[in-house]
Structures are given as C-alpha cells and as structure tokens.
Amino acid sequence: xxxxxxxxxxxxxxxxxxxxxxxxxxxxxxxxxxxxxxxxxxxxxxxxxxxxxxxxxxxxxxxxxxxxxxxxxxxxxxxxxxxxxxxxxxxxxxxxxxxxxxxxxxxxxxxxxxxxxxxxxxxxxxxxxxxxxxxxxxxxxxxxxxxxxxxxxxxxxxxxxxxxxxxxxxxxxxxxxxxxxxxxxxxxxxxxxxxxxxxxxxxxxxxxxxxxxxxxxxxxxxxxxxxxxxxxxxxxxxxxxxxxxxxxxxxxxxxxxxxxxxxxxxxxxxxxxxxxxxxxxxxxxxxxxxxxxxxxxxxxxxxxxxxxxxxxxxxxxxxxxxxxxxxxxxxxxxxxxxxxxxxxxxxxxxxxxxxxxxxxxxxxxxxxxxxxxxxxxxxxxxxxxxxxxxxxxxxxxxxxxxxxxxxxxxxxxxxxxxxxxxxxxxxxxxxxxxxxxxxxxxxxxxxxxxxxxxxxxxxxxxxxxxxxxxxxxxxxxxxxxxxxxxxxxxxxxxxxxxxxxxxxxxxxxxxxxxxxxxxxxxxxxxxxxxxxxxxxxxxxxxxxxxxxxxxxxxxxxxxxxxxxxxxxxxxxxxxxxxxxxxxxxxxxxxxxxxxxxxxxxxxxxxxxxxxxxxxxxxxxxxxxxxxxxxxxxxxxxxxxxxxxxxxxxxxxxxxxxxxxxxxxxxx
Amino acid sequence: xxxxxxxxxxxxxxxxxxxxxxxxxxxxxxxxxxxxxxxxxxxxxxxxxxxxxxxxxxxxxxxxxxxxxxxxxxxxxxxxxxxxxxxxxxxxxxxxxxxxxxxxxxxxxxxxxxxxxxxxxxxxxxxxxxxxxxxxxxxxxxxxxxxxxxxxxxxxxxxxxxxxxxxxxxxxxxxxxxxxxxxxxxxxxxxxxxxxxxxxxxxxxxxxxxxxxxxxxxxxxxxxxxxxxxxxxxxxxxxxxxxxxxxxxxxxxxxxxxxxxxxxxxxxxxxxxxxxxxxxxxxxxxxxxxxxxxxxxxxxxxxxxxxxxxxxxxxxxxxxxxxxxxxxxxxxxxxxxxxxxxxx
Lengths: 667, 344
What we know:
heterodimer, A: 667 residues, 4 domains, 5-stranded antiparallel beta sheet, 25 helices, 51% helix, B: alpha+beta, Immunoglobulin-like, 2 domains, 28% strand
C-alpha cells in the first residue's frame, strides 16, 4: 500500500522538461509586472498545461489547436497595444511565443530555441527595470538556463540536480571575470542605432518641450555633456545652480507642455528686480537639435549669437531662432538674487498658472482643495513639501511606470517613487488645486566642477525639473520639491543623489538601536546609496565618455614608473615562488636518484614503480651492463638506500658528491 | 639543506630535466606501441555546432539591442552570455582531452559477422566526464556514449562488419562530445591497435565430411575407430559418450582424480582428414577454404577427431577448441600476405 502512495520517480525526460519549465518561469516572471494581466494569465496557463502534459504523460496538443490559439493571442496583443511593432507589444509577443513554443517542443533543436528566446527575454526585461535586484535575478536565470541546457546534453549518466546546478554555477563563475573585463573594455557605440516608433522621444538629445512621467529620467540616464560653463568669478554654490530651460504650464492630466505662444505674447511685461553681485559666465553648449539656450536663473542679458538671434520669452526662457546643430559659445550675465514679477499685472495671465484639466486626478485635486483652507499660501507650499519629506517618498532613477490616465494620483497615492519630474509635476498640480499659481520649470541643476581647468560640466544626467509658485509680495519663487525628498540631489549633482531606502528603514533603525537611531540609519542609508550610486555610475551609465575616461586614466596609471615597478616586482615574486615550489618538491639527492633510474631505463632496465632501491640494485647486479657501470649503479643504489632509509648521518653535500660521481660512471 | 657548487647543481638539474623529458617521450612512445593512447589537448579539435552558430547570432542581437536602447545591464547580460559560451568551449575540450584509451580484447568471427572491438577508456583526471560519444569514424551518428566519473573507466564494444577472412584491423574511432552546453562540438580520433581474426565464411550447403571409408549407419561416424586402445586424460571437447565412466567412478576427484577419455584405435580407413589438397583445384580457393571451415565446425560438433592439412601445415587428428582455433586461424590466414607468419 505504501508503494502505491509514494510519488513515483519521474523519468529522465519528465524531469528535464520540468527543469526547463522552471527556468522559463524564472525568466518570464519579472515580465508580469508590465504585461497586461491576460498575457500573464495565458502564459501561466500554458506553462501549467505543459507541466500537466509532462507529469501525466499526455500527448502534446496538435498544431491544429496551437496555431489558432497563437493567432488569437496575436490578435489580443494587437487589441491591447494597438500595434504589433512597438517595443512593448514585441515583448508581449515574445513572451507568448516562448510559452507556446513549450507546447511545441519535439526535437533537441527546439530546446535551444526556447533557451535562446529566454536569453533574449531576459534582456527585454531591462527595458522596464535595471535595478540591482533585476541583475541578481538575471544571474540566477542564466544559471538556471545553463543548467537546463547542460542537462539536455547528457546522454547516459545523470548527476543529481545539485551537482548540475553546481556545474552551471561554476561555468558562470568562470565566465564572470571575462564578462566584467569585456564589459569595461568592449568599445561602446553611442546608441541608439535607430529609433523605434514608440521610443522616438527617447532619441531626442537633451530636454524636450514636454514632460511626462518617465521622460526626463530617460534623459538623465545619459552621461552626455549638455554644456560647459566657465565663470568669470567664483562659482556660485551648488544649490543655486539652476539652469533654466523650458517652462511648462499646460497640463492634460499626464503630460506637461508649454503654453501656446500667442497667449503669452504681449500680454504683460516681465519685471525683474535684482540684487547682489552679477554672475558672469560663458556657456559652451553641445549641439542639441533644439532651440533652447541655458542660463543661470535669472539671466539679465541675452546671449549674442551671430546669425541665430536669441529671444527671451515671457517665462524668461531663452530661445534661439534655429535649432542648435553645432557647438556654440555665448556669454550671459545672471543674478542669483532676484525677484521675478513682484506685482501681479493681470489676473488673466495668472489664470494660466491655475488651470487644471477637468476630471483627472480626483484624489490629488481633493487634497489640493483641502489645502486651500490654509489662508497663507506659503504654508500651503510648506505643507506639501513636508508631506514629501516625511512620508515614504523615494527618489529613483528607475521609477515604476505610471500606466493610468491619472498619473499624479498614481504617483502620490500609489508608487511614491519617482524622479524629479514626478515631484515637480505633482507639486505644481497640488499647488494649483490649492489656488497657488504654479508652473513647472525644466532645465539642469548643478554640474561638475573640474578643479584643474575651472570648467563646470553640466551633463544630461543633470537634467532636472522644479517648480515656481507665485506668492504675493515675493513674485515667482522657485520651489524644488525634489530637494525635499533627496536633498543631496540639489546639494551635489544628481549622480550622487541618494535614493531613500526602499522600504521603511526608518522604523527598522528605531527597532535596532534606541540609543542613536539616526547614526545607524544614516550609515545604512549611506551604504545603500553608495551601492546604488556605484550601480548607476558603472553599470547603467557606463557610457562612451566614461569608458574613454576610464581607459585614459588606466593607461596613464599603467605607464607611470611606480606601476611598472610594482608589476615587475610582482612578476619576480611569482617567478621566485615557482622556483621555490619546484625546489621544495624534489631535493638534489632525489633528483640524482631519478636521473639514475632514467639512465638505467634507457639501457633497458626500467625500475618498476613499486620497486625499492635495494630490490632494484639486486636486479641491476645481474643486468647486461659494463662491469664498471653495473658496480657503480649498484653502489649508487646501496648508498642512496642507506642515506634515505637507514638514517645514515653523512652530510648531504658529501652524499650528493659521491652519488654524482657514481652516476657519471653509469654509461 | 647543504649548499652545493652552483655549477654542479645547474648541470645536474639540467641533465635531470633533459632525462625526464626523454623518459616522458619514451613512455609516451611505449604507450603508443601498446595501443595505449592519451588523447592530448593537441589532438582534440573543436568547432561551434549549429546551435553555437545560432548562439553567436543571438549574442549579436543582444548586443545590438543593448546598444540601441542603451541598456547598461543588457551589455552585462550579453557579455556574460558570451563569456559562458567561451567557458563552454574550454569545458567541452576538457571533457575530451587527457582521456586514456586502450584497446580491449578482440575475439574472432566468421566472415560476414560483425567483428567486435572492445575499447577501454580511462579518466585519469579528478573531474567527471559526461556524454562522450564514440563510434567508428565514418558513422554519421555515434551509437555509443560513455560517462566516466573522476578516475573511473568504461568499456564499450564497437562492431564492424567483416567482409573477408584474415586479420581485420580496428577501424579509426572518433570520439565526440558537446557537453556541457552543446554550443561547441569537440572531437578526436584514435586508431586502436587491435585486430580481430576473421575466419572464412563456413559454406552453407557443403558436402558431407570427407570420411575415408563408409560412414557408420548412425551417421555419427566411427570416431577414432572401434578398437579400445586405452584411456587418456580428458580434453575439453571430448564427446561425453567416450568418457570412461567406470574408471572415473573409481577415482575420487577430491583425491586428485580426474576425467579420463577412452581412446580407440581406428583403422586408417575411418580417419577423418580435412585436406586442402584433396579438394579439386577447379573449385575457387575461397570456396575450398569455406568448405574446409564448415567441415572443421561439423567435425567439432559431431565430436569426430580430425586431422587437418593445409599447404605445408599438418595437424594430427584431434578434437577441442584449441585444435579448432588453430585450424580456423590457418584457414583464415592461408595465402594472405603477412598472414602466414601469424598462422604458425
């Protein structure tokens, strides 16, 4: 009876197929996060179907059944994405293809098809997430795929799964150093090679005229230089380096755009009150194919560009007449201490800054309306900033995608993780709902000062979005909600901006040490952010520029005499070590002994491996050698045996010389 | 350790090194002579399989995708996968390299039968090997596979169709493997130093045994004549009915007794002689040898001692496997170049 109850041992084929299903699942699972639910369901059902077919030993479904199902799935993809071509639709199709292919596996070739498709699917997962966890998952998936692949190569004996996993892991471990070297050294080409219809926006270099969740963080992944700045005097402190770009004031519920120009032109004059000393500087801007010029807030003079005149818009944006297709240089004077439009000169104009799309983001709207109960607008501003600071909002380069139409609601009450565009957009929305005129300003923040040449380099990764609110008596005031979440973002450059811990580490810190929670917490935060920063810098953002810098530094370091000396010393040490090891292995007397044995073997008298010197000597005594050689060999063996085994106390040098003399007589 | 004259040390060391090298070469040569072969890495060839070529295409696609979408982690995946393929290449070559090969026993067959060649593979390394496929060189899909644990060994028998009598040398054997990932196929060749003796094909509808005189009515023939001449020690192959059972019963085997066979003195007219010259020379040589083979087999199965004459070779009448093997070997090698020496 017990026999009947026990789970029967699975046959080899079944076990292999289940392993393949498990590996496939490992690759497909992360895709569930972004695929439409029905695709996930269909894939899951297909894999379960395949597992059932395997376990029960049923037949695979015929192609007459599979083909219509696959066609229906294709239609479903089209219905979900309205296209079959784009990136996301392609990934969905691929996921379905792998799942269906599992039901149509007949030959060994099909296994390779599935495994190779899985490798590709592992790559497509990086469209959606490139976090360290994703990387870890990738390594695990590859190990599983390798194990599956090698399992299918076995013909007879099948080592236990643990041994196979170990072999897969061993291969991965052997491959890792090579992979890292290639990662660092392989010549990178500036992508993209072509633009996909869906990701056309990503291909524009630098800032665009619109801002939707996810757009700016794509720009910020690029290490390309946007422009370089040389200041005449001292460099202003990092927190005041706001390089003003397009000002976005129209919102449709998801995307921020500029106001139509006709609504601005001539409506009102811009009044700018300045204080403090002017800051003079020269900007060298890389070609961007856009018309925006960038200046420190607020610019007082216009750049003077021959044959491409620049104009100042009502929002104090600087726009050239034609797109910038070449590197240009221009001088600007700005005042960091300023008051913009202290006095409202027309309520019509101010209405633009209060408009909200009807019917979207109801929760944020309600929250804003509640805020309006506060009479002092400044307090409304600080209330929202406090909310960003104290609640679990995180700053991340790889924010979760906001799929819905109510992107602000999704962000504020859902994901709570975003890049500066999320914070700026949500802040301006809340402000407008609370009756405070507000607008989004995009541009760059900060920059990297090179102490050698005094140039400040502003990269695309410094792209930023902040907000301006109009307050009675103060005019347009810059508010950077991102700074409330990640103050480091503004104090240093974005590359060093440290995202908050992903889960409630504050609480954890309090649990762990009541005496000084902040110290521990900040240590953890610091370690995590350092790790994340390294990840961003060296993996996600390892660009052509960075590779070039690294290799230059590497070659420079290599040719310094200290490095060469260290390398030479290392080589010498290694050589000495090898020599020493060889010496340890055989002492000179033993070397003489083996030389004798070889010489005798040459004369047709090989020593058996298990033959002791004394026994060998007895054989040598009757061997067909010249009498002298025979006597010498026998004497050699006797002396060697005595010295080696009978603890003869002659000094080694003496024994060596005697044996050497005897050896030379064995001719 | 005592210090020594440096010049002497160097000289001794150099000589020892040289002799060690020479000894190694000699050992390898000896091993080769004995048909014992170490499949060195230099004798292992490796090329990507079709799946490996597809994998290269996959790597290109991954690389292009990573470049186009600027996926830092994508580059990581691409290079990791590519490195895994390279590691696979090394592992595949290692799966075959340093394999010790030795021919096993080789039997004898009749022409037309499959000649078995036993092959021994030993794994002298501390790592297990899997899925090594072995077969005769010209076979497209190998029929045998070996798995060798660390330090283990395995045997397998390769069969080759034998067409004509004589020595059949072992065919060149090809060892292939694509373990672990199947992206690369490694192969190596080995010429085992062994041979199988192929006896002539026994004629199917041969005339009856050439008994001199009348065959006895029971069809068994007068084996060794009718007149009892004494006993001799049993030899394997002696017919049971010729054993001297009464004598045997008297001797206790535990006390050193053994089987004895009755011997009969047959008249010359009843002697069975399988004589090449007695066959008409009009018959084809191979057919004559074929017929003699059949007769040798028939005589053995019927328990008739037979004398055997082939060319200058003369065997007296006898019975038993040793006699049969000697006769069959002579038939197999008769008039073959290089065969006579072996026949003796």
